[in-house]
Amino acid sequence: MSMYFHLRAVPPAALRNSATWQQKLFEDDWDTVRRRLDRHREEMLDKHYLDHQLLYACTPPHHAEEGPWAHVVLGGRPVLHPEPDRPPFLMLTAAQVARVAAFLTGADFDALWRPVRDKLLPRYGGPDTEPEVHGVFAASHRDLTAFYTRTAEYGDAVVKWLVT
Questions:
Q1: Which helix (H) or strand (E) is 141 found in, with range?
Q2: pTM (two decimals)
Q3: What integer pLDDT is reported at residue 157 of this predicted model?
Q4: Is 130 exposed, middle or buried (0-12, 13-18, 19+ CB in 10 A)?
Q5: CA distance linking residue 142 with residue 92, whole number of Å
Q6: Which of 81, 92, 94, 97 is nearest to 23 (CA)?
Q7: Does 63 score more than 80 pLDDT?
Q8: 159, 10 contact by CB (below 8 A)
Q9: Please, are residues 12 and 163 in contact by the beta-carbon 8 Å criterion?
Q10: How is the beta sheet containing 77-79 ordered, strand by strand?
Q11: Number of Cβ within a 10 Å radius of residue 51
Q12: Which long-range contacts (CB under 8 A, 24 or more apart) does 76-83 make?
């Protein structure tokens, strides 16, 4: 089964506190998603999204202190899915998005990497894979920074969901 953690920019006026409405946000075809990715209006993380949470928050999910670093991946107000076995949606306000964008823009990737490298590298083949793994996480960091920066420039909110 493929899992992708999607982050979608949404104008605040269009945002609805409805799981049904939010689920429809993520039902687009791949070409539409790809166009939004190219314009930094949507971002996706693969099944290793929890490792990205660790990179930014330095803690397992649901244990991070409050702050923009904790909102990059799993932060936001949950909106429960009507099917209890499905993950909740997460919503960030435009103000929270702006704080995340400022955090990411000012963050030194290597300073984020150093405290978690010893936890992450064993999951990806050990120390010999560090250049490749570091590169993959650095590329994701650049993509997330571009997504949040563009979203903040538009004054938009973000809805997140684990699509399976």
A1: helix 130-154
A2: 0.91
A3: 96
A4: middle
A5: 20
A6: 81
A7: no
A8: yes
A9: no
A10: 42-45, 4-10, 157-163, 89-92, 77-79
A11: 20
A12: 76/158, 76/160, 79/17, 79/18, 79/19, 79/22, 80/19, 81/19, 81/23, 82/19, 82/20
Q: Is the pLDDT of residue 160 over 60?
A: yes
pLDDT of residue 62: 46
Query: How many residues are listed for the chain in this entry?
Result: 164
**Owner of token pair 């993950």:** 87
- Nearest Cα residue to 48 out of 158, 146, 137: 137
Whole-number mean pLDDT of the chain? 90
Please write the tens of the pLDDT for every residue from 95-142: 999 999 999 999 999 999 999 999 999 999 999 999 999 999 999 999
Pull the structure tokens for residue 121: 């590298």
Q: Which two tokens stand for residue 20?
A: 């049904």
